[in-house]
Structures are given as C-alpha cells and as structure tokens.
C-alpha cells in the first residue's frame, strides 16, 4: 500500500487540505494577503505526497508546483523561480478563464531577450516607474511591442519572444497598436506560424540575461519582477473576468529549505510587505529543515515540538483542526505530526479486509489488532507505516498475519522493510555519523547517550554531530519522561538502529561501545558516575538490557520489600516495574514465539535467581516480551510487540502479580496491584 494510495485521506492530511481550501475560496472570509504556510517535516513524513494531493485538489484553479531541490543548481535565482511559476499559473484550467500576467511577462521577456545590458536596466526602471504610477498594464504592452518590433525588424519573431506571448495580454489592444506599423503588423499577424520556445528554453534565456549584471542589478530586477507579478495577479482577479475566479491561485514549493527556496521566500515576503496590498496568491511550502527565513523570524529559542502544537484533536474546543503558528506576523508554520493510532488503524483495516480469511485466522478483531501492533512499531511514522502495509500484502495468500508483521520487521527476511526505511530516513547523514548512531539508540533518550562521553571514544567531531542531530526537532520527537521534556528518536528508527546494534559481534572483555553490551555498560556506568543521576532504576534498566536478569530482579525485589514494610508506595513500585521492563531485548532482531521463549528464559532464571525472587523475575521476562496496555505509565517509552504480539503472556503477568499481591497487607496497596491485574485481563487492542 504505497503512500500515494492514502495521501490526503488521513485525518492529518484532511485537516491541512481543509485549511488550504478555506484560504483558496474567495468567499470574503479570508480577504487580504494570506501569509505563506510553511510545512515542516523530517524525511519520510509525507510532505511531497501531501503537496501532490493539494495539487490534485486545486486542479480546477491556477496552480503551480515546483521542487526547489531540482531547480537549485547554483545558477538559478528568484527570477527563474518566478518565471516557472508564471508559466504554470498561465496554463489552461477547466473552470476559469486563462490567467495573463502581462507586466511580469513583458519584463521577464526583456530580461531574457535583450542583449544590451543597458536596455535590460531601462526596462526594469520603466516597469518600476509604471508600477509606482499605476500604469503597469499600458507600459507592459509598450515594452512587449518594442521587443516584438525589434525582433521582427532584425530577424523575424524568434521562439524566445513567442514563449512569453501566453503571459502577456495580446488581444485587440496589441493588434490595434501594431496595425499602424506594417512590419510589426505582419509579425504579429504571423504569431500563429512561429513555434514558441519551451518554458525551459525561456528560463535558460532569462538566466543567461542575468549573467551579465551585478548582484545588485539582479536583486533590483527580481524585486520589480515580483512586484509586477503580484500586480498582475491582483488585476487578473479584479477585472471583468476576475469575478469568475471563485478560487485564488495556489503555489506549492517542495524542499523550500534549499538556498534557492529560501531566497525566493525572502524576496516574496519583502515585496509583499512593501506593497501592503492584498493579492490572490496562496503559497504552501514544505521543508525538511527550517529555512533561514524562519530562523531569522523565530523569537529566541523555540521549544522542542512547539510547531506540533498546531494540531487540535476532536476533544479540544472547536473539534479537530490545524491552527498554524503565526511567526512575525507574516509566516504561518505547522509541523507534520505522525499518524495517530486511529489513522494507522484505518489504513490497517483496508489491508486486513483485502487479506484471505485464512491469513487472519485465530486473531480476535484482526483489524484492531493490526492497527494497535503496527502503531506500536512505527508510532505512525508515515513512510515506515506505508512500507509495512505494502510488505504485508506482498506475501503468499496463506501466510498468517502475525508472521507477515514479524517478517516486515525482522532483518534478513525477504519482506523486511528495515534497510529501506533507514535509508529513507537517515540516508542524508554522513557515513561516519550513521555508523555510530546505533549506540545512541541504546539510551532511553538519545540525550543520555550524548552525555555519556564513553560512547564516543573521545571523538569530538562525531560527538558534536550526534548532539546536533538529537537537537534537531525534525529528526527527533518530543516526549515526557517522568514529567520532564526530552527528545527521542522515532520508535521505528530506534528499533531498527537497535537491531543493527544487536548484530554487532564482540561482547568479550574489554567491551567496545559499538557493541550491545558495551553500549549499555557505558550507559550504566554514566548513571553512577559523578554528575550522573544515580537512579538505581536506570541502572536496573541497563542491567536487564544486558541480559543480567538477576541484577534487575534484585533491584525490584528490594523495592518490593519496602512496599511490604510500608516505606514505599505500591504505585511507585509498579511504575518502577513498568520502567525496567521496557529495556530492549538483545534478541529483538530475531523472530521468536512467546510461549517457548518465555519458558526458555524462565528455565535460565531458575538457575540464577533466588526462589523468593522468581515471581518478579517472571514478571520481567514476560514484560520484556509482551504487548502492554496503552495506559501503562511508560507506554510511550519503548514497545516491542513482536515478542508476544497477541498477548499470550498476559495470563502469566496476572498470575505473578496476584502472588505478589498476596504478600501485601494494606488495602490501598492491594488495590493498586488489583488495578494493574485488571488492565492485563483486558484485550490490549
């Protein structure tokens, strides 16, 4: 199920589509210039597919869509971008009269066709003065006719001149002015017999014309071009035909964080601000990094995840909506959020309904199950979710759904999506940073890994690059850990990086930080080192991740004795259990069946864990393997649902909790354990 199969159908995309439609409609509710909407999102968040959907949505109005990464070759500038936009906007639409841009079209032609730099400079000043005096329309006709007459006199009408003809007014005025000049009249009469240059050829000529000017001359020409363009648009929507245009025009810019994209946004913003007048342009730009325009406008340091606050849910006042954050009064910013569980569930249901009945045999409510498990695995990361759903339908008909899901996330499987997803999400990192990143995934939050200097072997450069990546809120996600804000890797990225870490060999002393045991040993030592948190819970977490079940069990057993003595609240102990059991399994890169794996690990525990601590050891074994209730206090910390995707071990957890509850005296403590047991008796999806 490729992403473009559901682009625009998620609640997220529908809300953004509605926002764009509301601003496109000329119903009087959004009069005035609409600030550009900047959509921020890291790699794989669905920016490009969303823009494609918006283009389709606005197919009946004047629309232009540009990929700034393709245009930004180091030679093109704002004028080239504007010319490309002008050509696309002037294309025929099924619903509205053709859009003509006479002033900007004539000036662009002068800049592209004139070989004399002095003539180009005079044309810029000519149009600037006309714009100031409100006679741009008349002046543009005169300028175009002047170029036309020169071209006809010298060598007939060249294709470059013809390329600009769709942008200018033409019609009776052009015929009338030219009819008194025989040679020009013959040239105009022969317009239909000349094959125009393509827009690309016109852009080449325009770019060539700028090569002979200074940067100041180019900036001046671009400013006047933008003024003329906006003036053309405004008149096109105000003249007689303009009343028929019930939608504004839409410009879509992908990869707007490029130098060319940022330069265009800054130039457009400056001209719009200077004009102080309304225009019918709605611009939506997508960027995987903050464009410099935004960086310069942001009021100080923006908190991690601040732009995600634009999303309102159905439970909020006014219902679900997107409310972009206004920056500096002239820029609206929204960050694309991951898909929520309902959205993943909706797409999962489509896949389940397409599968044969045999594939979902034995799973109660398979659509709900797949939605829950897949959301646990990807947390709604759009590219990873789409890749997984596509993989699920690529199996043979008889393959069970559980096996399909496991295969999609198991390295070495014919249907694995791991490398594909990591290449898409992290493919722009330097090889050196990419090589060390798995060890950062070992920590609960990668900031803890950054603080553990021993992970980086004294390499300051790599240390700083990883720290920059962790601070990038378009690569990491905001999280609350024990009430404190933290940045975490997207769950699917952390899972796939941990799978890489688990496959690195070399666990014999001395341990290397590039190995699983070595990374967790460094993190454990950092907890107890001077300046560390000293949190025994974090140390137990690292011990369990290293496979030291006895040490992790001992920590929880000692804490349980405090609960029995009344010196520790039972709820605090349950939270500690939830935290420690979220430690990743070293074997998460292999597909296992919950029952046999649990029995194998219990048999090992019986040889290393004292008998009085076995209930807690069994809780940790089952807790590391299984899918937990969504109300677990650390549900968002880490989840590994593939160990026990159907909750087979929930009965074991209830049994061990019941045995521990039997050792408690106070009703409040007893009730806390009973509440936890009831959660595991419920179907987790």
UniProtKB/TrEMBL annotation:
InterPro entries: P-loop_NTPase (IPR027417). This is ATP-binding protein. It comes from Streptomyces monticola. The lineage of its organism: Bacteria, Bacillati, Actinomycetota, Actinomycetes, Kitasatosporales.
